[in-house]
């Protein structure tokens, strides 16, 4: 199922949010969001600060309860109002702006922890898998380094490898490069691009317009809790229909 980058419309949906709503203390923050993501698609979520992008992503990850609508993952209910969201134990990988590595564990130990604890993978197998993942993110020689010995970009690549170690069917990224210096941003985006090209299903909040334009199959623009624009990158960038999208793109692209 992960062999195409641009999935046809009939492709099975890995993720499906319908009428998703989330409020904090009665204040709606995510409003009536419909988002169906077929297998193999890369979706870039753009929008101004405070638009509700992170909140939406956490709802899609099952990290927050929702007040209306529903979220399904691989056809199974992930979240609905009035119940605790279901955890899919690593089948949904999440990478945050702050890398959140365990500071007292090496790169290798960070990556093997969940497979060993949650999946019961044996040490040798978990370490072999982790080493292969470190090679994939370009860090095989850093396996025994602690997070403080790694640059931000290296830490973020370890965080991606850690999520991949659980063999996720969906990867969610929340501004994965926003805390990085520009020289490290590129290496993290390269890892994400490889993942996309290998057919991973991805939803990423990002301010990297080049990534959204070149790598994403689809761009979603959020304002005030709502998705106001949803289409392929070229269409959203060159022919935005929403006034706020136009303003945002003008500001950020300086056009
Ligand atoms: N845990 C929370 N409690 C209360 N309000 C929150 C919480 N998290 C986010 N918000 C509010 O929800 C709105 C959307 O925030 P967020 O999802 O972080 O937006 P974005 O990621 O687009 O910048 C903001 O007004 C923010 O203050
Ligand atoms: Mg955010």
From TrEMBL:
Keywords annotated in UniProt: Amino-acid transport, ATP-binding, Cell membrane, Membrane, Nucleotide-binding, Transport
Keyword Membrane: yes
GO molecular function, one term: ABC-type amino acid transporter activity
Pfam families: ABC_tran (PF00005)
Family recorded in the similarity comment: Belongs to the ABC transporter superfamily.
Organism: Saccharopolyspora spinosa
Protein name: Polar amino acid transport system ATP-binding protein/general L-amino acid transport system ATP-binding protein
PROSITE patterns: ABC_TRANSPORTER_1, ABC_TRANSPORTER_2
Superkingdom of this protein's organism: Bacteria
Topology in the lipid bilayer: Peripheral membrane protein
GO CC annotation terms, alphabetical: plasma membrane
Compartments reported by the entry: Cell membrane
Domain ABC transporter positions: 15-249
């Amino acid at each position: 199922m992960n062999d195409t980058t641009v999935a046809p419309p009939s492709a099975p949906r890995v993720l499906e949010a319908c009428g998703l709503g989330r409020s904090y203390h009665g204040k709606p923050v995510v409003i009536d969001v419909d988002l169906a993501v077929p297998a193999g698609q890369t979706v870039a979520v753009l929008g101004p600060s405070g638009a509700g992008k992170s909140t939406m992503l956490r709802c899609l990850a099952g990290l927050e309860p929702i007040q209306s609508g529903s979220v399904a993952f691989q056809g199974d209910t992930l979240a609905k109002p009035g119940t605790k969201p279901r955890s899919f134990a690593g089948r949904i990988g999440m990478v945050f702006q702050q890398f959140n590595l365990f500071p007292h564990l090496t790169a290798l130990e960070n990556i093997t922890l969940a497979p060993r604890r949650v999946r019961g993978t044996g040490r040798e197998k978990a370490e072999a898998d982790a080493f292969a993942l470190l090679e994939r993110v370009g860090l095989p020689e850093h396996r025994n380094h602690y997070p403080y010995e790694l640059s931000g970009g290296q830490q973020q690549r370890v965080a991606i490898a850690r999520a991949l170690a659980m063999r996720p069917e969906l990867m969610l990224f929340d501004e994965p490069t926003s805390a990085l210096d520009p020289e490290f941003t590129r290496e993290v985006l390269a890892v994400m691009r490889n993942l996309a090209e290998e057919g991973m299903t991805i939803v990423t909040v990002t301010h990297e317009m080049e990534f959204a334009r070149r790598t994403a199959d689809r761009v979603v623009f959020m304002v005030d809790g709502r998705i106001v624009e949803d289409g392929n990158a070229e269409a959203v960038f060159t022919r935005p229909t929403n006034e706020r999208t136009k303003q945002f793109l003008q500001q950020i692209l300086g056009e």
